[in-house]
Amino acid sequence: MYRAIKSITVCIMTLLLASCFDGKNITGLESLQSELVNANAGDTIIIKNGTYKNIRLTLNGKGSKDKPVVIIAEKPGKVFIEGESNLRLSGKYIEINGLYFRNGHSPEGPVIAFSNNGERAHNCRITNCTIDYFNPENRNVTRSWVIMYGRNNRFDHNTVVGKLHQEVTLAVALDEEYDRENNHRIDYNYFGQRPIMGSNGGETMRVGSSHHAFFSSNTIIENNVFEQCNGEVEVVSIKSSDNIVRNNTFIECRGVLALRHGNRNIVENNTFLGNGIPCTGGVRVVNEGHTIRNNFFYRLKGGRFFSALGLMNAVPNSLPNRYHHVKDVTVENNTFIECDNIIFCVGKDFERTLPPSNILLADNQFIHKEDKPVFQAMDDISGFTFKNNRVNYPKNINHKGFINDDTLLSDSLPKHLCRKDVGSSYYSLPDKKSNSGKIINIKPGLNTLQEALTVSSNGDTIVLEKGVYTIDNTLKIDKSLIFKNGNDDDEKPMFEFIGKTPAEFFTIVKNGSLTLNGLAFNGESTEKALASGAVTVMSGNITPYSLNFDNCEFYNFNETKYAAIRAGKSTFAPKITIKNCYFHDMSAEGINLADEKDDRGKYNAEEIMIENCVFYRMLGSAINIYRGGNDESTSGPFVYISNCTLEDVDNKEQGSAMRVIGAQYANIRNCSFSNSGRGGASIRFNEMRWDDLTVSNTNIYNSGKISSFGDNVKIKSIYTLKPVYEDSDNGNFNQSKSSPLKSKGINKTDIGAIL
User: Fold this and answer.
1) pLDDT tens-digit profile of 315-325?
2) What are the domain boundaries of the chain?
3) What is the CA radius of gyration of the chain?
4) Contact 588, 562 (CB under 8 A)
5) DSSP class per residue in 23-50
6) What is the pLDDT of residue 5?
7) For residue range 203-235, what is the model confidence (pLDDT) as tens digits?
8) Residues paired with residue 537 on neighbouring β-strands, in sequence order
9) Quick check: pTM over 0.90?
10) Could you tell me the CA-to-CA distances from 500 to 503, 534, 585 in Å, in that order?
11) Residue pair 298/272 in contact by the 8 Å Cβ criterion
12) How is domain 195-430 classified at the CATH fold level?
């Protein structure tokens, strides 16, 4: 499968015979094999600066403790490894220094593995190297970047940034006996910028696995910086025993250090800086014998599994991959400043019924400016002992083992590691201010949009004159662009499809994002085919993207399998915003964020905001959002829908005018459903018990019910009034002065859209 890839096997051996090799040599990667075959323990091999593509390095050698074999870049950071490339390291006492992986991906397996064909590396070191956005094209590829096997290996002073696809960034494997009690060191590295995956499999670091949890790993993770490592709830996942995690800094990571499986782990002297970012967390505890001490937790805003501190309920007689009993745990001398959630017995449900036992919380400090509980107990905490914990909260706490102390201060942060203190010596994060920002003015016609795309750069704004813009094939968006109406009046420039085969107007591909303002999309073709959508996102798109729509109109998308706006399978957006838009006269769905149908907890967007929109005469659902399964590795989606009007939407048998399936947070308010979902539901939920769902100040007239799985939706201020529109025949769905929905919304606003 990979015949086109150059395979270089580097054999480093200690020669018994004398050698003329002088101990140092400069070589390119292409000739490295012939140079290294004569290398002795203690030799240094210098790799010539340059760019090397499609290289599979297999390093096997035998240095010694006092005389390691060193392979170093001529200038660290100037040996670039690109294309389909990876590195396999085995043998003893080998040090690799200064390699830079970029502009490519591993064709198989991890980028770096401390193993080759079953032979492990021992006492080896990788230092001052960089893995920089070294990704395949599809985000659904399951592949780690670094896997540590063997014993006594070190991964230090490296920079690892921008992993966009599935699977853990760095894993410590305990597959075989000689991988256990490994004494690995992972230190002084910078791990950064891992975006939200929207699914399980986005850990930045994992030590062990559920099947090997009760084996000792003896791995030390210290003096690293984790910044914006947001892949999933477990930033660092400890799944083995007898590890130490100390002196690390976590900066704005939407997740936690999870003691997920295994016993007797120590978490000490770490700093967790949430800085008020949603879903930032601290430490979550499962299993027994752990010590959590001398850590600093600052402005962490996550709840439940994302809490600043969470001690979990267990499953009685748990299977290896579920939740074992939390017991014999000490939490001492930690400081919590403005952390919103400290939860004991977190995760209690019909399965997790066993509370923690023999838990000691002693000499901790809790400081908060807001009136919040110091801790929440979701189950019996008789197995907890509280001693000498000091509290400075607006209200005094009256609980044994807590002392109210208003002298505690929250003004200063402790000394902690920053980005400049760790990572490869030469790496700096790219400047985000690289957008062009120029204005491109275009006129109506067939090719004007394509011409504008050709000359555009990231961050540009394309301004459209009024008129018709005909499109005969999909326009691919591979940069961040704004398209906007350049007219002073209300007439929208219109996109019209004239293709002979179905296609979308716009498709977001790698590196693309799109903002549309004041535009109209007509899906009806003058040829044989209908447009299959206005904006879609290519399935498997590796890069996170954003979509923003304001004052746009979508109509005549008349195939039921289509949607005006659709996110493809295995794509992810941190945020999608749709406001002041009008969807009408279509058989398709309006907004489809529901292509993740494998029921493994995946979803298409973290935050979805739909505001002040009208949906009229639609055969399909107005809004279809789907997250299937009960995976708990994620926080979203967060759904906000307000002041929307649905009139004559999805009246099919068992249809749903609005589907919000599996959202972990939803707030639907000030909306009006009229003659919609009559064969099924106006709003259909399918919630877990812990989901936070609210429908308020909403009108449901001659429409289906609000349907939920467990009746856990908070419903309040529901009306059943007939709307009176100003001029619905001409697209004006504002409530008339005589409408009973005037001033019925939150803060005395109207219910429904105001366009």
Assistant:
1) 999 998 899 99
2) 1-167, 195-430, 440-552+565-575, 594-755
3) 29
4) yes
5) SEEEE-GGGHHHHHTT--TT-EEEEPSE
6) 33
7) 999 999 999 999 999 999 999 999 999 999 999
8) 508, 567
9) yes
10) 9, 16, 22
11) yes
12) Pectate Lyase C-like (2.160.20)
